[in-house]
Automatic annotation (TrEMBL), chain A:
GO MF: sarcosine oxidase activity
Transmembrane segments: none
InterPro entries the record matches: SoxD, SoxD_sf
GO aspect biological process, one term: tetrahydrofolate metabolic process
Domain of life, source organism: Bacteria
Stated name of the protein: Sarcosine oxidase subunit delta
UniProtKB/TrEMBL annotation, chain B:
Class in the EC hierarchy, top level: oxidoreductase
Keyword Oxidoreductase found: yes
SUPFAM superfamilies found in the cross-reference section: Folate-binding domain
Record's protein name: Sarcosine oxidase subunit gamma
EC code(s) of this entry: 1.5.3.1
Top-level taxon: Bacteria
GO MF annotation, one: sarcosine oxidase activity
Keywords (A to Z) from UniProt: Oxidoreductase
Pfam families hit by this protein: SoxG
Family matches, as InterPro entries: SoxG (IPR007375), TrmE/GcvT-like (IPR027266)
Record organism: Nonomuraea roseoviolacea subsp. carminata
Gene3D superfamilies reported for this sequence: Heterotetrameric sarcosine oxidase, Probable tRNA modification gtpase trme, domain 1
Annotated signal sequence range: none
């Protein structure tokens, strides 16, 4: 079980959270102009790094706010959390 | 007036039996007025709503304030950066808050029927809740003035510690489940 530090509520157990996938995936500026392949790439293709990964989480059983977390996919260590709209911090 | 039945009414007798010893006191506090308030905390409307309540909306995460007494008593719990839950005795006047907000951006919704309130009190109340709650409930970090939305035995609850015990606000549809769970977990503390 991960202990995830919600930027509002503080450290809470993983079961209170909902995972939201990779963070900072920008919506295309002109979706209608994309080819099917580009659209599919936007919809379905995500980074899969071994190491620090910026991802979205929702504190669904608590304050119900979405936030971003930097999690190491190999060790599960969480290097930091930041609220929506805040810049991605540099992983330590 | 139509007949009303609170969600945990069927457990009144068993709650009373579990409260006979010194260790625990279990009860349902039915039909409390609950109001969900959403407003930008930095806006003038938030201040006016605070005036209508008689106490400012708490802006610190995980805190609750209690003000007034008797029929005017209110407890305002922080649910999110722009969301609060007002808990008050039955009959609390929602219109006063609506008037405080006026036609400005925000919302004030009566959610009294969404949850019922269970009181878990007594010297072993904290031990009982700790059976199914991962939070640190020690009074040094979670005493009166705090509040939390978390899970108790996997059911979503709002926990509000007060001088006279913990208020456990649970969805009406989970009330029977949580009442059964509390009574089962309480077995070792009941003489």
């Amino acid at each position: 079980m991960l202990l995830i530090p919600c930027p509002w509520c503080g450290p809470r157990e993983e079961a209170e959270f909902h995972y939201g996938g990779q963070a900072h995936v920008a919506y295309p500026e002109d979706p209608a102009a994309l080819s099917d392949e580009e659209w599919a790439r936007y919809l379905f293709f995500r980074d899969n790094p071994k190491g620090v990964f910026a991802e979205r989480w929702s504190h669904s059983a608590g304050c119900r706010r979405w936030f971003n977390a930097l999690r190491d996919t190999a060790t599960n260590q969480i290097h930091g959390v930041y609220r929506v709209g805040e810049p991605r911090p540099v992983a330590s | 007036m139509a007949e009303r039945r609170s969600p945990a009414a069927a457990y009144a007798g068993r709650f009373e039996a579990a409260s006979r010893g010194e260790a625990l006191r279990l009860a349902e506090l039915p039909f409390l007025t609950q109001i969900d308030v959403r407003v930008d905390p930095s806006s003038p409307a938030a201040g006016d709503i605070g005036d209508a309540l008689g106490v400012p909306l708490p802006v610190e995460p995980g805190t609750a304030v209690r003000a007034g007494s008797g029929a005017d008593e209110v407890t305002v719990a922080w649910l999110g950066p722009d969301e609060w839950l007002v808990v008050a005795p039955e009959g609390h006047r929602l219109e006063l808050l609506r008037k405080g907000l006026g036609d400005r951006h925000g919302s004030i919704v009566d959610v009294s029927a969404q949850r019922t309130t269970l009181l878990v009190a007594g010297p072993r109340a904290r031990d009982l809740l700790a059976h199914g709650c991962a939070l640190d409930l020690h009074p040094s970090v979670f005493g009166p003035g705090a509040c939390a939305q978390t899970t108790l035995a996997r059911a979503q609850v709002v926990l509000i510690p007060r001088e006279d015990g913990f208020l456990v606000l649970v969805r009406s549809s989970f009330a029977a489940y949580l009442a059964e769970w509390l009574l089962d977990a309480a077995a070792e503390y009941v003489a």
